[in-house]
Amino acid sequence: MVAIEVPDSYGYVVLTAGVLPAVTNFLLSGKVMAARKQYDVKYPNLYAVPGYHKNADEFNRVQRGHQHMLENLSDFRFVSFIGGMMHPVTCAVSGVLYCAGSYLYMMGYSDNKLDVKTARLKKGGPILMLGLMVNLVCAAKYAVSLIK
């Protein structure tokens, strides 16, 4: 049997890459459920259909904000768990940035007063990408250290 030793602070990585994204996802899912009710978008439709749903764009912006987190969550978690083996505190802080940025991204994306590009950049997009990229670099650094 092979044993893997984890750093003392690795629990923070588990919290910010395992638990916190799940809580963030629940929060974002709740916003989508509220938007479904508000804009009358029934299942099984993932998105509202323009021309059929009166407020298709408004609902789709909320749904898209949530979907963005789901699209890169597995990559974020993977690089966090790996990078945290060498840099647990850095990866934990980046995990908080990723989750906060994901929440802010959705809030910006669903802000109908802003055009989509401005909303993504103004509210959260750079923050979540910073969290993801820092952990990607940490994972790459750890991977290179394992090559003999």
UniProtKB/TrEMBL annotation:
Membrane topology: Multi-pass membrane protein
GO molecular function, one term: glutathione transferase activity
Keyword annotations: Membrane, Transmembrane, Transmembrane helix
Regions crossing the membrane: 12-28, 78-105, 125-144
Keyword Endoplasmic reticulum: no
Primary site of residence: membrane
Pfam families linked: MAPEG
Endpoints of the signal sequence: none
GO terms of biological process kind: leukotriene metabolic process
Name of the protein in question: Glutathione transferase
Native source organism of the sequence: Chaetoceros tenuissimus
